[in-house]
Known about the structure:
The chain has helices at 85-91, 102-105, 132-152, 175-187, 198-210, 263-280, 287-306, 335-346, 377-385, 406-418, 439-451, and strands at residues 6-12, 16-23, 35-36, 39-44, 47-51, 54-55, 58-59, 82-83, 98-99, 164-169, 193-197, 223-229, 234-244, 247-255, 312-317, 329-334, 395-399, 429-430, 458-459, 465-471, 484-490, 499-501, 507-510, 514-522, 532-533, 541-549, 557-566, 572-578, 584-590. It has 600 residues and is an alpha+beta fold. The strands form six sheets. Strands 20, 21, 22, 23, 24, 25, 26, 27, 28 and 29 form a ten-stranded antiparallel β-sheet that branches. Strands 1, 2, 3, 6, 10 and 11 form a six-stranded mixed β-sheet that branches. It has a six-stranded mixed β-sheet with strand order 18-17-12-13-14-19, with helices on both faces. Strand 10 (164-169), helix 4 and strand 11 (193-197) form a beta-alpha-beta unit. Helix 5 packs across helix 11 and helix 6 (263-280) packs across helix 7 (287-306).
Amino acid sequence: MTQPSYIIGIDLGTTNSVVAYTRAEAVPGEQPVIDILEIPQLVDAGVVEKREVLPSFLLAPGKHEVSEQNMALPWQQESALVVGEFARNRGAELPDRLIASSKSWLCHTMVARTEPILPWKSDIDPESKRSPVEAEAAILQHIRDAWNHLMAAGDETLILENQEILLTVPASFDAVARELTVKAAEIAGIHNVTLLEEPQSAFYAWIHARGDQWREQVVKDDLVLVFDVGGGTSDFSLIQISEQDGQLALERIAVGDHLLVGGDNMDLTLAYSVAQQMAAKGKRLDSWQMRGLCYSCRHAKEQLLADSGVEEYQVTILGRGSSLIGGTLKDTLSRDVVNNVLVNGFFPECESTTTPTAGNRVGIQELGLAYESDPAVTHHLAKFLRQIDDRQPTAILFNGGVMKADHIRRRVKNILDSWNPSDDARPVREITSDNLDLSVAKGAAYYGLARQGRGVRIRYGLNKSYYIGIAASMPAVPGIPAPTKALCIAPFGMEEGSQARLDDQEFALVVGEPAKFDFLGSSRHDDKCGDIIEDWQGEVQAIAEIETILDGEAGDIIPVTLETTVTEVGTLELWCVAKTGDRRWKLEFNVREQEPFEDQ
Length: 600
């Protein structure tokens, strides 16, 4: 690989994607400048324009829905797929052909994430469908092609594939979702990526925007809450400000659970609000129209939250069949309705002891994205903060498009202040971001500079503790399987580039036939590598199945130890290492959870 000319930060968002970049080589006497790539994309049929934001939507239109000549891009005359603004807007009229929130599917353990399942519940031809990994790859490929068209101009050394790439993921993404994100990048032809957590990236953007003055806005012992409500997920991270060698130091000390509640849930809630208005007028919507209405409400929400001068927004729902045009329905969403629905529904006032409502579980459930049963983000925040021994954040950095709204930020700050019982407690202060849409991408580019020693780095490591399920050694009892214990193989905070080996714990593997392991994860902070949890139900959750077929004579038993590596890229590797000799077997994540092993 050639020496990179640029450091590129890619915010691969659930709703929108953004690309920021800076020169990789330092210029003496100059502060590095981070720019935003204006991405060419279809904004209407046959119309290509540049935008700072690439909506993370894919449209696979039928032959008679969008003509091929109207899908042409400067670098590609023919395509079966549209990415970006036109895909989002036209998709509201063609919901069966629109892929949205593909990023949220990457961490869904109940579906085959490498199989063509999107658009979900659509009856379009299978060849037009994509897997969640392929959908993410298509967005990244559009970004790669756009960069090469604008920035490379035929110079091989300037193509995106030859630059340093920082790709952001939710802080709560588990090891499998991170691995799939890297796989999506590889499918798009991008092989040199490093993963970075989005809340950290938002904090890096704040540091870059403030320059040397950032040290004047935080002090030793500050605890900064990064409150990130995105299109598909809500992420909480805590960054501790400490002192080292007379300088302020930063460490990410806690990460929340993966919460599938965000802008998508809000769009659906607003859609139901509009549907109820229409039902009161005698107009009932079917499931197809509801999907279209949901996408229309997303646009209305963004406009009403972003522009204080807009008091209401018209939403449109197409008719069905022969009355497609004549049966078009229209209604309005007002700013007051949006504010009340979002603030009271997703950010309600609550006590610090509040626990998210689990909801009644139905025996047979519809398979789809596993949204949180309790949509109240503040309830989940209360649960998250209880894990840090009742310490309260002293500062807060907001991120995510929803948090543009002043009244939502005020509500969250007021709730945090109400949770601090100390008589001399000071109000939580907000450290402000310059641009909530662009900050994650800019922060990722800044992190690339920090890796070169040209910026401040946040110390961090694994976002959770990881375990392997091991069967207890006990006499066989008819009808009772041996209980499974959880063996910690990678503790919370294990840093990138580090390795852990369980040399003093030996396991027996049968070679020549499949071997399976349950891969588990938890937000527990106290476990160390090699610790065994006897009763782990409720505290530790299954993430995926790991499988390998060990080479050798069938039936042979090989004594092995386990070895874990956190790669520089930010992914996790697990190995079985023979006690004698130099044989090693990598344990691969199985992401086709719903299929029997024999069929894979």
